[in-house]
Amino acid sequence: MQRFVVTSNVIGAPEALEISMESFEVAKKDWKELLSVLLIEERFDSLVTNFLRFEELLVARLLQFERVGYIDGNHQMLVRRDLNRVLNNVLSTARGYIDQLPQVANQVFGADDPRAIRSIEILREQYDSHVGYRVLEAIRNHAQHSGFPIHSVSYSTHMIGKFPELIDTKCLRPITRPELLAENAKFKSSILQELKSLGREVDLNPLLRQYVAGISRAHYYVRSEAKAHAIERGAALDSLALTYISSSATKREILGVYAVALNGNDWREQIPLRTGTAAYYDYLCTLNDQMDFADRDFLIGSVREDA
After folding, report:
1. What is the pLDDT of residue 301?
2. For residues 43 and 197, is the Cβ–Cβ distance under 8 A?
3. Sign of CA dihedral 24, 29, 33, 39
4. Which value, in Å, is the radius of gyration of the alpha carbons in the chain?
5. Contact (CB, 8 A) for 174 and 136
6. Are 27 and 237 in contact (CB under 8 A)?
7. Per residue in 168-206, pLDDT tens?
8. Which residues in the chain show pLDDT less than 70?
9. Which of helix, strand or coil describes residue 198?
10. E strand residue ranges, the chain
């Protein structure tokens, strides 16, 4: 006979608390929805982390060039290799995020809910509005199936200010060449023409920043609409666990609490309760909250106070 209970797998735990099938199914749904929003936050965090590593690598190599200089041509090729490797990580996590977002929105809000529809619309709007988004989507396909998109690195210097109070500025740019991308017959022709209009050598960094900023705008919308819902789901799971804990004589904290579907004494299906998942999700929501400004250019450096 099938039964539904809240219980613990810890030795010495109180006897199982009987619950209805309906309560078990609600807990199951709450857990799935909480995991879905947690997954999309973790995917976004992974994307941002990889993007920041790309930016950090540019700064680190620029500092190395400035203070140590080039060793030889092979050294420059290693810089290009490292940038391609980290860029591939950014594009891979971006693709995973974009693929997952509609599924999460549909599960949490419902496929016909305006919020789910709007989540997908924002990504489409970013694609239509920003050349960087379009280019990096095509670059991702190229990198996956054809070749590395960064063909060279450009190290440049120029002066800011007036003599004799000049500030020497340096720039390291990851360069892609449209004519080399064109050797891939499957590269989207309309995107290739956009790239060619930007010149023979195209700096990928501002385009990448547009791409990440565009994805971030969609994410922040989903976060704003889903957060309260997810916290409520976590609270409901905690409440079910606390009902079980309060049923014990000691009412002490109990670890390893589950909602369980039993066949006899066999655990046929289990839903973990009081896992801290909602608190972890809430914490992730406080991170990476300014990435919609990732497309803004900035300068990093140091000057004397009297410069």
Report:
1. 56
2. no
3. positive
4. 26
5. no
6. yes
7. 777 889 999 999 999 999 999 999 999 999 999 999 999
8. 11-12, 72-73, 249-253, 297-307
9. coil
10. 2-8, 17-18, 152-162, 165-176, 202-203, 257-263, 266-273
Short-list 166, 133, 280, 292, CA closest to 222: 292
Q: Which residue, 40, 28, 32, is CA-closest to 224?
A: 40
Q: Could you give phi then psi for residue 289, rounded to 5 degrees? A: -100, 10
Given the structure tokens 């909480």, which residue do they identify? Answer: 34
Residue 169 main-chain phi, psi, to 5 deg: -110, 145
pLDDT of residue 181: 97
Residue 182: strand pairing partners: none
The answer for residues whose C-beta is within 8 angstroms of residue 43's C-beta and 6 or more apart is 93, 96, 97, 100
Residue 221, Ramachandran bin (φ over 0: left; ψ between -120 and 50: alpha; else beta): alpha
Pairwise CA distance, residues 116 & 134, whole Å: 22
Residues 6+ apart with CB under 8 A from 8: 14, 244, 254, 255, 256, 257, 258
d(CA 91, CA 1): 51
Distance separating alpha carbons of residues 193 and 171, to the nearest angstrom: 26
**CA 242, CA 132: separation in Å to the nearest integer?**
50
Per domain, the residue ranges of the chain are 2-293
3-state DSSP assignment of residue 262: strand
- CA 107/CA 89 separation, integer angstroms: 27
pLDDT of amino acid 131: 97
What is the structure's pLDDT at 306?
A: 46
Which residues have C-beta within 8 Å of that of residue 82, sequence separation ≥ 6?
A: 57, 61
Tell me, what's the pLDDT at 62?
87
**Euclidean distance between CA atoms 86 and 184, whole angstroms:** 22
Asked if 46 contacts 287 with a C-beta cutoff of 8 angstroms, the reply is no
Q: For residue 53, which amino acid is it?
A: R
| 296 alpha-carbon distance from chain centroid | 19
Specify the amino acid at residue 199: G
Residue with tokens 């790239």: 195
